[in-house]
Amino acid sequence: MMSPESKRSVVRDILLQLPFLLWLILLWMLLWHQFTPLALVTGILVAIFVTRVFRLPTVELVGRVNLWYALVFIVLFLGAVVMGATSVAIQVFDFRRQPGAAIVEIPLRYADDIVTTHVAVTGSLIPGSLVVESDRDRRILYLHVIGLRTRGDVDAFRQEVLRWERRIVRAVGTPAQYRALKADEARSDAGAPGPAKGGAR
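The chain above was modelled as a monomer; its predicted structure follows.
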């Protein structure tokens, strides 16, 4: 029979994993483009299966959520999805020229495992880009992007991903990440140079 301490450990583990379970369910529904009771039920089953069979160490969340920045992120993300889909459709039906493509290196500035995952998922869900590799130790993402033809296009895309990172940090980043972001913004306002940029492959 399970001891009271073991029961508390199981309950604590479930509560810590709950945000991740909800995120997996949302990703499942977005993947199938269905927000139906059936998609919800199958999403729950898949999320439980993934977290039980492919079990990873429990990730403790800081519990910091800024509702205003989270709302701003959601609105901007939905807008980016629509714009990305439109842009991809235009490139597909533009028979005059092939859309350019590149693998872009994105060195993240503030990310831990959680923020890195959020940035990677965000970049992959916006049509036109897909994460192909993640360097966990150096906090670098590599994204395959279509519609890039010049160095300026590459730099503009990199800066857009870094803006998504900052939005995520404002919404759900740790207090230390948020303080680092505010310090960098203060230095930028004062005219100090920002962090070094990455390159394209």
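The beta strands are 101-107, 129-135, 140-146.
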